[in-house]
Amino acid sequence: MNRRNFLSWGTAGMAALCSAVGVSFGAVVRFLVPSVFYGPPQSFKIGNPGDFPYGPPTFLADEKIFVFRDRERGFAVASAVCTHLGCTVAYFQDDREFHCPCHGSVFSPTGAVLHGPAPQSLNWFEVTLTRDGQLRVDKDKVVPPTYRLMV
Amino acid sequence: MKWIREIWQSIVRRDPLSTDKGKSELVFLNVWLHIHPAKVKRENLRFKYSFYLGFITFFLFLILLTTGIALMCYYRPYPPAAYQDMKDLQFAVFMGSFLRNMHRWAAHAMVVCVFLHMCRVFYTGSYKKPRQFNWVVGVMLLLLTLGLSFTGYLLPWDQLAYWAITVGTNIGSYAPLVGGKLRELLLGGHTVGEAALLRFYVLHVAVLPSLVILFTIVHFWRVRKDGGLSRPIWKLKPQKTEALVTIGAPAAVAPLQVTAASKDKTYGLMEVVTGKPIFETVTPEEEEDTVFSYPYAFVREAVALMATVTTIMAISLFFKAPLEEMANPAVTPNPAKAPWYFLGLQELVSHSALLGGVVVPALMVIALIAIPYIDRNPSRRPRDRKWAIWLFTFFVVANILLIIVGTFFRGPGWAWVPPWVHVVARPE
Ligand code: HEM
Ligand code: FES
């Protein structure tokens, strides 16, 4: 084998080796990304409009949402997940604010940050009426805090 | 009786321990002991030099391995079984609560000791040439220790665990570009749930311990190959550091001294090369100052081992590892605190998540790793390295202060509270 052959075969061999390593590494990373998520679904029904009282919001613990119902303005759904590091916020009816227990973020009635380290306001989710007359919340659809569903 | 002796000698194969040859053979014919040299510098055995902190850290790790394997016999890594198993360990399994306590307190102690060990190494200037790389290996071990603590924290699946990990992993997601994806990879999902518990379990019982073992092997090997522990400051010779040359480099200085071979000494074929080695060597005068590892070093190490085990056992008899209610994603305890060694970070995070959660810790790790390469001052004497000592002390004090603030001065809503509220109004 002459020098030139050696070099070209060597280069090709190294390239093949590197790509094999690269592909294997990619495969390992892909392996670690779950193909199926068993977490709670992002879009779900929460019941009939009549189930929800007027006044203070209803907190749905499993979904981590607050369901607001207002006589004039209808339904709105706010996320209870603090935008700082994901703790569950509590709602206080007297000052109508959301308070996060972890690092003290406080959110206004519209979810805007009043105080604390949270970088952005709380999310509001789209809520619609299904054909069988139930409320459906879709956490993948973030809406402005003015969004309302009239029933 | 002769055959018993023959069997015994087939195992140990060394001369009696009353002879010098026997003493050194005990060390270098034994695969476990031969990480030690046959003789060590007498001054290095002094407690006041190393405080045996590296050994204590290692012994704590051994306690964690043994108690951890015991706990694995009763632990199922999925909710809600994980929490039920904790309750069983606490109340139903014979000695379960004791073993769990030992595992928990040894883990805390290991974090403390690895940190103190690092401080000892820094203040004695032992990261300097030729030990730079072993410092880096050490930093890896420090990070792995923290990783083990963090992954172990989730396993009881109680409120404390759930929220500490929720907050902790969300900190990571502030890293630009890759943060969110990395978090998803670690959790195996969008939130802390079944998949996350299983992944943390795999990391905690398989991946990280294996890495710690691998790095520890390298760490110990390097201590040995760097010429044993660094000389105590009070034994430093007047400036001779430049004299170190790489093996294989042409010998610029005088050829190796040849001493007449004595009849009752034998020589193995190790390290017969020209040029001076990279590691610290011992001069004939200094050789006077060495003692046999057996029994001097071994006895001291055995004492350190027994002291470590007894202390952890004593603590575990009197103090219970905490276990709160079962994890409940809907209710965040107020305040939700990370494990204590991350409370300094959480304090920073409460001011700015990006700065406190990503930028500052990343810079700290990079700075730690780089220390031996930035600090090129060859002297190990404290009076020659005032700057280095001030800077490092600032780093240590800042970390401790932040942890104290996060632990004792922060109450519900992360509001500032006087420290005694934790004593007066302790939730039980
Ligand atoms: C799992 C963690 C660790 C274990 C089990 C460990 C163990 C040890 C042991 C047994 C020694 C011998 C002497 C002594 O007791 O001091 C040693 C020396 C040393 N360690 Fe560690 N260590 C760990 C982490 C670290 C860390 C975090 C650093 C620094 C960042 C570090 C840097 C060093 C250096 C440079 C030496 C040589 C010191 C000298 O020559 O005086 N180690 N280690
Ligand atoms: S998680 Fe809400 S303030 Fe930090």
Write the layout of secondary structure elements.
The complex is a heterodimer of chains A (151) and B (428).
Chain A: H1 3-32, E1 43-47, E2 55-60, E3 65-70, E4 74-79, E5 90-92, E6 97-99, E7 106-107, E8 113-115, E9 124-129, E10 135-143
Chain B: H1 2-12, H2 20-28, E1 39-41, H3 47-50, H4 53-72, H5 81-91, H6 96-123, H7 132-154, H8 159-172, H9 179-187, H10 194-225, H11 284-287, E2 290-292, H12 293-318, H13 343-349, H14 353-374, H15 386-408, H16 421-424
Antiparallel strand pairs in B: 1-2
Helix pairs in contact in B: 4-6, 4-12, 5-6, 6-7, 6-12, 7-8, 7-10, 7-14, 13-14, 13-15
Bound molecules: protoporphyrin IX containing FE and FE2/S2 (inorganic) cluster.
Are there runs of chain A of 5+ residues with pLDDT below 50, and where? none
What's the SSE pattern of chain A?
HEEEEEEEEEE
Task: Report the portion of residues of chain B in β strands.
Answer: under 5%
Unique bound compounds: protoporphyrin IX containing FE, FE2/S2 (inorganic) cluster
List the quaternary state of the chains: heterodimer
| Number of alpha- plus pi-helical segments of chain A | 1
Strand order of the largest sheet of chain B: 1-2
**How many beta-strand segments of chain B?**
2
Distance between the termini of chain B: 63 Å
Number of strands of chain A: 10
- Could you say which structural class the secondary elements and strand pairing of chain A correspond to? alpha+beta
| Rg of chain B, Å, rounded | 25 Å
Helix content, binned percent of chain B: 55-70%
Order of strands in the sheet with the most strands of chain A?
1-10-9-4-3-2
Chain pair forming the biggest interface? A-B, 26 and 33 residues
- The helix-strand sequence of chain B is HHEHHHHHHHHHEHHHHH
